[in-house]
Design goal:
There is one protein chain. The chain is mainly α. It has one domain: Four Helix Bundle (Hemerythrin (Met), subunit A). The chain contains five helices and no strands. Helix 1 runs antiparallel to helix 2.
Length: about 140
């Protein structure tokens, strides 16, 4: 994977909540592409994979912050529900971060398993973010 492709995928993922016209099918495809990109890294490219993972987490952090601000502006039962969902997303984000740490420490035979575990956990987190974002529309 070349740096241009990685930048393109990252830019796509970062903009997925910002573009109102993006469909959930598009978001799922983009998240899948980010996970597939990550899964394509070999152990020799571990530093690049971890850096890419950190960028994905930073993008997820921004998305969660947006949802948190939106939840704070909501009222009644909706507010309570959104705040609970954001709390869950933060817990999921912490689990993804742990998987990223494990990936950074992995080598040899453990590499593929930890790399795939991070990519799958990241995909689940982004799916959760998207589902919560839909409730705000």
């Amino acid at each position: 994977m070349g740096p241009r492709f990685i930048v393109a995928v990252l830019a796509t993922v970062l903009s997925q909540l910002a573009v109102a016209q993006t469909t959930s099918k598009d978001v799922a495809k983009q998240t899948g592409e980010a996970a597939d990109t990550l899964k394509s890294y070999s152990v020799e490219k571990k530093k690049e994979a971890v850096a890419y993972g950190k960028k994905l987490l930073s993008a997820a952090d921004r998305d969660i912050k947006k949802l948190e601000r939106a939840a704070a502006k909501a009222s009644g039962d909706t507010k309570a529900q959104l705040q609970e969902e954001v709390k869950g997303l933060k817990a999921d984000r912490a689990a993804v971060s742990k998987k990223l740490d494990e990936m950074g420490k992995a080598s040899g035979e453990a590499w593929d398993g930890t790399k795939n575990a991070f990519a799958d956990a990241y995909s689940d987190l982004k799916d959760g973010v998207e589902k919560t974002a839909k409730k705000l529309k």
